[in-house]
Write a structure and sequence with these properties.
- The chain has a 25-stranded parallel β-sheet that branches. It has a 9-stranded parallel β-sheet with strand order 36-40-44-49-54-59-63-67-70, with no helix packed on it.
- It is mainly β and 733 residues long.
Length: 733
């Protein structure tokens, strides 16, 4: 390049030299003052060699090396740990020793290693291969099933195959199978199983059993050799040694027993007394002393003692018991350690708890006064002092104010002003059978304004049965699940009725006969006045029904300040059939002559109502609010709604389904031209009084076995639940 004095030359592009890095020029060509020769300068390239060992190995030699371009690295070696071998470098070099030469780039490689594998071959005594297995270094092989060789006993393998470090051949080993004789020798008083003589090999384990004869006890095993699992045990094991053995089962006469001495008479029912136990001996005849577990059971009352008795140094003890039943008792006395119990018969005297009977189905406990009735809670309620499930009770006469115990137990000032105490509770239901024999229970008073499960019976269990009970003039005031007869029923009630007043005061069922029904009610009725001040689920017969009601009816006035009131049932979630209501119902919403609210699981069949219905909205001659099924029903009562905004119908107030069939209402007596206030009216037919007393109107109903009618005189009535006199129009105008 030609440049002027004092000017600068312009360098060419940086030159390239293989294996080197250009570093600049050897002479300054800024402000040139003479001719110059400028030579390029370079620095040779260097590269890093990195050698890394993978798992289970190491590197011998310099692991990190720096070399000039084109130069050679030093030698390195990949070395495996014991039990492993080298398999190659990560750049596919296969030799464990390497030296990288003429290096022109960085090298970063890893040596890879793998575990050694060996073949283990199992063979029988004759060389027959039994199994071949590949195992890793240090692992164990798995032997095949023990081989069988006739006349010999397999003893194991000739070579250890735990933690294998090389390929192996493992051979089965045997010993000649020698049989030894085992002879059973029971002493007098028993036998053994097995018995006689057995041939066994050394180490064989068998089960053995000693069987005492009557009147003898087993004393233990003994043998001339071998191993007995548990010498005192009747049933144990025996391990055969390498010799013949005699095995003996020893038996002794059973000397166990004790005496029972009753107290001097009389023994009074309900009063404690001591039973003397003496001369107690174990099976070997040794005296029994100290604390011993004893049970005493009566054939009438069941267990009367279950605990510890203290036997003194004379082998005697006193056990304090009480028998409550006036009867002849057979006691079974059992002392721990003495196989056979002792039996003793005792006559118990005194005033009877009941008028008679033993509580069986054949001989029920007899109830003649209020004191007897009060004892039902001790004998028929779970947790009672003398409870037995399935106990039977029976009234023998009316229980009214004249009966003994009325003023102490059922009058308004009894029990601190709360009157009768309900029999049972939510956690302890009545589980027996109570037959009123069509006698009356009358004048009973109960006021438990903070109590749930309020009725003469608080709750009944699934196996309970109450029948033929006539409640007359009762006065019952409760809080929740309130009924004249039962607060909450899970069992069977039949042929029973109530009159009087039933009053509840919270959310929950209130009914003239039953507060809440989860069981079955048949052939029963109530004419009680039923009131629910803050309730949902108030009914003339049942407040809330989740069970079955059949052939039943109600006729009392039902009223309250809130919703879901029905002449028969307040809220129904299951089955009502062949039933009717004649009483008036007065409430707020969902008010029905038969049912206040028929839920989605509710089914009403072959039923009717004739009572007046009064309320604000959702009013129906049969049902106030319906989301269930209705079949073959009718209504003939007056439906009295508040104003034009009310939802009311001659049959149903508010209907959410189309599951109503063959059902009718009297358009004249109800003063309703519409069968439903809101919802589908499918299956509902309005008829005038003249048509409602003709069989042809109800042409799809069963007048052979379910319904009857006095043609041109009465509405249809039920054959098996006949209203007396039969219902006839006009009823309300």
């Amino acid at each position: 390049e030609i440049v002027e004095h004092g000017s600068s030359a312009t360098a060419p592009a940086d030159p390239v030299r293989e294996g080197y890095v250009f570093t600049g020029w050897d002479t300054d060509f800024e402000r040139v003052t003479e001719s110059l020769t400028v030579t390029a300068t370079y620095q040779i390239k260097q590269f890093t060699l990195s050698y890394t060992a993978g798992a289970n190995g190491s590197i011998e030699g310099e692991k990190t090396q720096v070399v000039d371009h084109g130069s050679d690295g030093t030698e390195v070696r990949a070395v495996s740990l014991e039990g492993y071998h080298f398999v190659g470098w990560s750049d596919d070099v296969e030799t464990a020793v390497r030296q990288d030469t003429g290096v022109t780039a960085d090298i970063d490689v890893t040596a890879r290693f793998a575990i050694n594998e060996y073949t283990v071959t199992f063979v029988d005594y004759d060389g027959t291969e039994l199994k071949e297995e590949i195992v890793e270094h240090g692992s164990s092989a798995t032997a095949p099933a023990d081989p069988v060789r006739e006349g010999y006993v397999f003893t194991g393998w000739d070579t250890d195959f735990e933690r294998v470090t090389e390929s192996l051949t493992v051979m089965a080993t045997y010993e000649e199978d020698i049989k030894y004789i085992l002879t059973f020798e029971p002493t007098e008083g028993g036998s053994t199983h097995p018995s006689g003589i057995l041939e066994l090999s050394e180490g064989d384990v068998i089960g053995i059993e000693a069987i005492p004869d009557e009147g003898y006890v087993f004393a233990g095993w003994s043998a001339t050799g071998g191993i007995i699992g548990d010498e005192p045990a009747l049933v144990t094991t025996f391990t055969m040694p390498a010799e013949d053995v005699n095995l003996t089962a020893g038996f002794l006469e059973d000397q166990a027993g004790f005496d029972v001495v009753p107290p001097p008479p009389p023994i009074t029912a309900g009063e404690a007394f001591n039973l003397f136990l003496g001369n107690a001996r174990d099976q070997n005849g040794d005296e029994i002393t100290g604390e011993v577990y004893v049970t005493i059971d009566s054939d009438i009352e069941g267990n009367v003692f279950d605990g510890i008795a203290l036997f003194d140094d004379q082998s005697a003890a006193l056990v304090n018991i009480t028998l409550n039943e006036v009867a002849t008792h057979e006691l079974t006395v059992t002392v721990n350690g003495i196989p056979e119990p002792a039996l003793i018969t005792l006559d118990v005297e005194g005033e009877a708890v009941f008028a008679g009977g033993d509580g069986s189905e054949e001989s029920p406990y007899e109830i003649e006064d209020w004191y007897h009735f009060d004892k039902v809670r001790e004998y028929g309620v779970e947790g009672g002092d003398n409870y037995r499930e399935g106990t039977y009770f029976q009234l023998k006469n009316d229980l009214c104010a004249e009966a003994n115990g009325f003023y102490e137990l059922a009058f308004y000032d009894a029990n601190d002003g709360m009157g009768w105490e309900p029999i049972g509770s939510d956690l302890a239901p009545f589980t027996g059978s109570f037959d009123g024999m069509n006698y009356s229970i009358c004048d009973l008073y109960m006021e438990r304004l903070e109590g749930e499960y309020i009725g003469i019976f608080a709750t009944t269990g699934f196996v309970a049965e109450i029948k033929n009970v006539m409640l007359e003039g009762i006065e019952i005031y409760g809080f929740e699940n309130v009924g004249g007869l039962v607060g909450w029923n899970n069992g069977l009630i039949q042929n029973s009725h109530s009159t009087g007043n039933v009053d509840g005061n919270t959310y929950g069922g209130v009914g003239g006969l039953v507060g809440r029904n989860e069981g079955t009610i048949r052939n029963s009725y109530s004419y009680a006045t039923v009131f629910g001040s803050h309730n949902e689920g108030v009914g003339g017969l049942v407040g809330i029904n989740n069970g079955t009601i059949q052939n039943s009816h109600s006729g009392g006035f039902v009223y309250g300040y809130h919703d879901n009131l029905g002449g028969l049932v307040g809220i129904n979630q299951n089955i009502i059939e062949n039933s009717y209501s004649t009483g008036s119902v007065d409430g707020n919403r969902s008010i029905g002559g038969l049912v206040g609210d028929n839920g989605h699981r509710g089914e009403i069949r072959n039923s009717y109502s004739t009572g007046e219905v009064v309320g604000v909205s959702n009013l129906g001659g049969v049902i106030g609010f319906n989301s269930g099924t209705v079949e073959n029903a009718y209504s003939a009562g007056y439906v009295d709604y508040e104003d034009e905004s009310s939802i009311a119908g001659g049959l149903i107030g508010f209907n959410t389904t189309e599951s109503v069939t063959n059902s009718y209402w009297n358009t004249e007596t109800s003063f309703m031209q519409n069968g439903v206030g809101d919802g589908s009216d499918s299956g509902m037919m309005g008829r005038i009084s003249e048509e409602m007393i003709k069989r042809e109107t109800f042409d799809e109903w069963n007048f052979d076995t379910i319904w009857n009618i006095y043609e041109d005189e009465s509405y249809p009535y039920l054959i098996d639940n006949a209203q007396e006199p039969p219902p006839t129009p006009p009823l309300f105008y």
